[in-house]
Fold this sequence. Notes:
The protein contains 15 helices and four strands. By secondary structure, the protein is an all-alpha fold. The chain has a single domain (about 1-320), classed as ABC transporter involved in vitamin B12 uptake, BtuC (Orthogonal Bundle), CATH 1.10.3470. The strands form two sheets. Strands 1-4 form a two-stranded antiparallel sheet. A hairpin with a 2-residue loop joins β2 and β3 (about 160). The longest helix is centred in the C-terminal third of the chain and has 27 residues, at about 210-235.
Amino acid sequence: MARSIMKLDVATLVPLLLFVLLALVPLWGYLAGESFYVAFVARMIIYAIAALALNLALGYGGLISLGHALFFGLGAYSVALPAFYGVDSGWIHLLVCVVACGIVGYLTGLISLRTSGIGFIMITLAFSQMGYFLFVSLKQYGGDDGTGIANTSHFFGQDLGNVYTVYMAAFIVLVLATWWMARLRVAPFGMALRAAKQNARRVNAVGFQANRYLLTAYVLSAILCGIAGMLLANLTAFASPSSLSWIISGDLMVMVVLGGIGTVFGPLLGTLAFMGLEEAMKSITSHWMAIFGLAIVVIGLVGKLGLIGLLHSFSRSPAEKAARLAQEKPTS
């Protein structure tokens, strides 16, 4: 029985254990009076949702996007702009977020998918920077300084401005998004999407329109990323053009790569490792970025599938490892 549980795979057991621990954080924070750490973990969960969103486009569809910060920022301003006019209905904030990210994701995706490779990367980056400078120019909403949010989102009488409420809301979204990604991976749409990533011409040849699948994945990814931005705006009660910066897109990409591209639990592990290491290094030295960068490089070199790949290697038997090495060994 114990052997069969181990066969369940360390790469599955560890993420499930992390979900249990994340569910207990608000209770621990309330009993210990440590709301700061609850807010910090809530921030990690929110970024994990955004990384999951990017993984749909990058990991499943092979769309290397440096423009997902555009949707992250749009989600934040979907709360800030209505709140500026006194609107605190979470449903209106959510509607604005979904519609804005859906439309912008569709239009930018439609244009970006006319290219591939480095062209796609640069166009998505350009769109993100256009959004950044647009919100910098809106001086009535704070411009470069950003804007505070006095009227945070209310759902069913619950205020997401409360750190415990927004934590639970973010955790529920993370669980549902992870479950959805797991189901999507083996669903016909997900299989066609992953096939389009491998060879779009062959997908077109068998009667499927690869670009249509890729565009749909890009739009869904944009909406989920926008929801993450909306949650962050409620957590911080603030929205800033910096949330649309290419740096955010780069961080999200590192989180996905660090955890494991195209895997279900990879974005969660990558986000927790990225933000956890960052916070730990900051408390040790002022030169934390050099150490942090080296740590990421080492993890990237050790496992092709990031942290998930490392966990998978722990659960393989010696015979399985030998067979895998034989498969990877080049033939003469």
